[in-house]
Amino acid sequence: MTGELRYVYAVTAPLHASLPADLRGVAGSVPYLVEHAGLAAVAGRVPEADFAEEPLRAHLEDLGWLEETARAHQRVVDALTARTCPLPLRLATVYRDDDGVRRALEEGAEEFHATLRRLAGRVEWGVKVYAQRAPEPAAAPRAAPASGREFLRRRRQEVTARENVLEEAEELGRTLHAALAAEAEEVRTYPAQNPQLSKVPGQNLLNAAYLVPRERSDAFVARVEQLGGHDPAVRVELTGPWAPYSFATSDTGTTGTGTTDTGSTGTETTGTKTTDTQERVHDGAGA
Question: Does 201 lie in the same domain as 177?
Fold first, then answer.
């Protein structure tokens, strides 16, 4: 396999500003526009040897390759977000050629247009709340317990302290989420982040995304800072603004964002987007 396929990052309304000349995407490709049906797909040429169905399936099991690809994907989407409100497609959405991209725009035109109208002028902010052990002041080493009763008393104190930290973090998470949901137009909540994949310390208690009009972003950020708390045992992380990844599909998941059309066999496989790897890339890019 020596040909090229078309990797599609996002769908937008027709752009009135060009992309940065030095922007490079997946596989070092230069993004360009495929326009059709009143829409623009932002695409890049990628090697078939890596992005045809079988090699792509193998690559998606390689976390190093996946993270590098997700970072390149995110660079292009970030550049678009600075200029417009893109509808980002799933990671590794690939088509045989430009005609395949045009067919996808044609087939999904009604839904693409409706989703772009719904998301126009809006960005996504991510908020996570963690319970973490507060740093302890330096103290003289304690003597060993004098008895089994003393040992159990100390253990109960340690357990109670951990439970109090968790309760405080949970209460802050509930208060913060309620306040931010009132500021946002739409909200998505997700399962707690996997600490083994994220490498982030602490117990994740809130993992949520908020759709906010761009002009209200400063007020949203100020609300997070106001309510985020200053308890050293609770950590609040804010990331964004992002393209509205979490809101590109409806609550029922019925949007047409991206399958992999790799040509002659007629085989289609769904692309991947919501992975712990891409979430980690998301968070790192926003740091």
Answer: yes
